[in-house]
Design a protein that fits this description.
Shape: elongated
Helix content: over 70%
Number of helices: 2
Mean pLDDT: 77
Order of helices and strands: HH
Structural class: mainly alpha
């Protein structure tokens, strides 16, 4: 009688999980840098906006929130 074939599903999922973690570690610094640049750009735009522009943006945002 032949021996039973053991499934390697647990090994596959462990490998897949490890690969997923590795991908996140590569992408995370790039994403964080992107977020920082975006926040800096937004802060610069906010400083340069006039009072009328800020009021128009607030009214537009209030319109979206009212929906």
């Amino acid at each position: 009688m032949p021996g039973e074939c053991k499934s390697n599903l647990s090994q596959i999922s462990t490998k897949a999980r490890a690969m997923k973690v590795a991908r996140r570690q590569k992408v995370f610094p790039q994403a964080e840098l992107h977020r920082l640049k975006l926040a800096e750009r937004q802060a610069t735009c906010t400083v340069n906006d006039t009072q009328e522009q800020m009021q128009a943006q607030q009214e537009e945002q209030a319109g979206y929130l009212a929906l």
